[in-house]
Automatic annotation (TrEMBL):
This is nicotinamidase. It comes from the Bacteria. Pfam families: Isochorismatase. Belongs to the isochorismatase family. Its EC number is 3.5.1.19. The keyword Iron does not apply. Pathway: Cofactor biosynthesis; nicotinate biosynthesis; nicotinate from nicotinamide: step 1/1. Coiled coil: none annotated. SUPFAM superfamilies: Isochorismatase-like hydrolases. It is an enzyme of class 3 (hydrolase). Keywords: Hydrolase, Metal-binding, Pyridine nucleotide biosynthesis. Residues 9-209 form the Isochorismatase-like domain.
């Protein structure tokens, strides 16, 4: 694809210390996304960086539920949830943007969006939270913000392909944007499921951008 700086936005999802090697919830080869993303940043007029920014004892933490880390289960009120090691706790080094990318995002990011800030609700997508206790998926306001800037297409990169990146891309399509996932700048928590993840994204109308832009 050819990047149109006026109408395309780059969404850099959760490239944070806890998702990088040595972090509390390290994504396999997560540091491989940094250089491909850095090369893209100057080409977009709108760049949004997201951060998981959880309170202690967040609903997604295995330690708060008694579940095993990485287990799929349900919250106390019956919502589906994958339970994770404690990660990206607000104000901790693990929640900070990754050191290989932070300086560049300081220069190029138009918006830094923090998500997962509510104690009782997880938030994978940059556009909408996961189901809350009332059975809703509240908007983060990102869709309206991008639309007001004239954005019509988004390119999504970061961590992790099978969770926050994928959910963000699908929700972008649902909000009326063209959306593509930039594979050179994305890695998965469970890379053994990449073929299924990519098939599900394509079925949802998300373009898979395999070649460098």
């Amino acid at each position: 694809m050819t990047v149109d700086p006026a109408r395309d936005a780059l969404l850099v999802v959760d490239v944070q210390g806890d998702f990088l090697p040595g972090g509390a919830l390290a994504v396999p080869h997560g540091d491989a996304v940094v250089e491909p993303i850095r090369r893209l940043l100057p080409r977009f007029g709108t760049v949004v960086a997201t951060q998981d920014f959880h309170p202690p004892g967040h609903v997604s933490f295995a330690s708060a539920s008694g579940a095993a880390p990485y287990a799929a289960g349900r919250t106390a009120d019956g919502r589906e949830q994958t339970f994770w090691p404690d990660h990206c706790v607000a104000g901790t080094p693990g929640a900070a943007l990754g050191p290989g990318l932070a300086a560049d995002l300081d220069r190029f990011a138009t918006l830094v969006l923090r998500k997962g800030t509510r104690q009782d609700t997880d938030s994978y997508s940059a556009f909408r939270e996961n189901l809350d206790p009332a059975g809703r998926r509240p908007s983060t306001g990102l869709g309206a913000w991008l639309g007001a800037r004239g954005v019509r297409r988004v390119v999504v990169a970061g961590l992790a392909l099978d969770f926050c990146v994928g959910w963000t891309a699908r929700d972008a399509v649902a909000e009326g944007f063209q959306a593509g996932v930039y594979l050179p700048g994305a890695r998965a928590v469970f890379p053994e499921h990449d073929a299924r993840t990519l098939a599900e994204l394509e079925a949802a109308g998300v373009a898979i951008l395999r070649a460098p832009l």
